[in-house]
Amino acid sequence: MALETTTMKKDPILSVEHLSMRFGGLMAINDFSFEAYRGDITALIGPNGAGKTTVFNCITGFYKPTMGMITMKQKSGKEYLLERLPDFEITKHAKVARTFQNIRMFSGLTVLENLLVAQHNKLMQASGYTVLGLLGFPAYKQASKESIELARHWLEKASLVDRADDPAGDLPYGAQRRLEIARAMCTGPELLCLDEPAAGLNPRESLALNELLRGIRAETGTSILLIEHDMSVVMEISDHVVVLEYGQKISDGNPDFVKNDPRVIAAYLGVEDEEVEEVIEQIEEIEGGQGGSKK
Amino acid sequence: MANIASTSASAGSDLTARALREAVFAGLISLGLFVLFVGLKTDQNIRNELVLNQRWGLLAIFVIVAAVGRFLMVAYIQPAMARRKAAKAEAEDVVKEETFFKRNFSKIAIAALILYPPVIVALVGVQGSLKWVDNFGVQILIYVMLAWGLNIVVGLAGLLDLGYVAFYAVGAYSYALLSTYFGLSFWILLPVAGILAAFWGMILGFPVLRLRGDYLAIVTLAFGEIIRLVLINWTEVTKGTFGVSGIAKATLFGIKFDASKDGFAALMGLPMSSAYYKIFLFYLILALALLTAYVTIRLRRMPIGRAWEALREDEIACRSLGINTVTTKLTAFATGAMFGGIAGSFFAVRQGFVSPESFVFLESAVILAIVVLGGMGSLTGIAIAAVAMIGGTEILRELSFLKAVFGPDFTPELYRMLIFGLAMVVVMVWKPRGFVGSREPTAFLRERKAISGSFTKEGHG
Q1: Which residue of B1, B194, B409, B449 is surrounded by the most CB atoms within 10 Å?
Q2: Can you give the pLDDT at residue A289?
Q3: Where in the sequence is the domain holding B19, given as residue range(s)?
Q4: Residues B325, B159: contact at Cβ < 8 Å?
Q5: Taking CB atoms and an 8 Å cutoff, what residues of chain A touch B442?
Q6: Domain-embedded: residue B118
Q7: At CB < 8 Å, which residues of chain B contact A?
């Protein structure tokens, strides 16, 4: 199965080209390019402060990049240049949904209401921009019933259906993480961007998260882009790993390749002084090999 | 058995002894505190000499009040409160069955309001009902409607608006000016006033889109003042501080409420009285307020209403879900302003006179206080708060017996703002989330559970 996906011709859903982001004198991201393929789970990893969340914020429109181009290619063939869209339109039209590193729930709304808010645009249209809905037209009632069914579906997936009528702020941490993913899925995205979905989860919860993410991909074909620190999650579920350090890409490939890439090991573990030369040698070797195979 | 009785008796006498001791201390402390403040007073006599008045009687009253108060507090109130707390903790496990009254509160309240004028007329007669229907009924309902309108902006969308009275003014002046200059009827101008106020709501909305919290509050405050100053200074149109007077009254299907041959009283074969017009106005504002409530309840179940509440909870999450926060904020401002404008045109038709004096900042503050006291977002709580605040201050005019206690110079109305402030402090200590702190969910899968106020956010702009 895994072999099949790798041998299939890869169809990029998201291409980031020469992305740079400067905050004053700080170059947070420097000429960063990568592609996420349709139907893949792509992981973006890197040490703290490498610029992973900045990349996410650029993709989802919360930052406007200093330079570069981000192209989202939908199933229908429609292409969107994300760096030109305002943040809410990226979710609305380009169908890229995201979650946040520090969970952002509507804590005073119930779990169900959280998922209904996510279906805002669909319901807005069905309610004739509120006017027809206010007058009691049946189209809105139908749409509202459907939206509750969709919410129920994702609640079942996230095993939250028993808590549907409780305030979201009352859920335990792990459940809030799952709810945030369920909420993002309710917007009907083609690309789901998850910012550290496993942060703060215990091993059992992170196992459940893996199941949820696999289920999402298998059922809807949604491509997933995730930032993660938890290597067990990354290695377990991702098809493609991109490593970022100091705003630059240092490795890109399947999990096994990345795991054994000496530059990645050096970036994560650091190397002792006497080993530096050895590592550099290895790197040069690999780069030579790569260059040879490419050109 | 006897043992228990004796221990409780000894505990009782212990308590009394402790209470007495604390009462003596409280008396001594207050004596020390007040001996110079109250016991001695410096005055000028007729020859401009400084004389020392001694007021030992008054000082004694102060000391006695402190001592007796402390005694009662320690001996009776504190044990009673402890008992109640214990009883409450025990009763916690028992599921509370909601009473019939509580479940149907809003229906009962609406029925009571519809029956209010006939009951009052039956009790105190047609002329006597004027005060009760107009000063209490209409006055309170105007504030209920205004507070419900502001609730959309502050309670649902979480946008702190300190200049809400500006929309009230826009509505009032829209009716006053358009009816005096163009002779348009009230029923046409009622929606027009609402639309104009909504338009001004949008105009306010645009510049404050990026502002949050304190900054938003300051700008809306300034907006309210700008509208008032324009009304004062644009004398060619608004007649400045003189105000617009002689505003046409409303009619019921073309029937006028006056002494003419085809006026309401003559047609109904009733003796002429202005009370009928007031009763008509009462039902009118009741209908308008209920319209506000109905629209609010319906909107909350619409995507736009949910988006408002989501905006209050977390604006960034809203944007990540594809919600256009710009239009969401603007619709909240416009809808809130529209109800303010409609209430304003009602105000103009009721008074027959509008001047900038009626639209000072204090009015905004009172309306906001009602929303906060009632519990942000809760229609029932806000209505109760409006009754307590506006009805409470009106009732001060009725307390003439206090003159017998405090002397003939005492006018209770003057203490209105003092009592208002005190009541706010007490309520906020007692119920920090307002009278009704919980939130009704707008949709449910299995059962509708009220959400405790500790989860909802107040919004930050």
Answers
A1: B194
A2: 55
A3: 2-88
A4: no
A5: 113, 116
A6: yes
A7: 295, 298-299, 301-304, 306-307, 309-310, 312-314, 316-325, 331, 439, 441-449, 451-452, 455-457
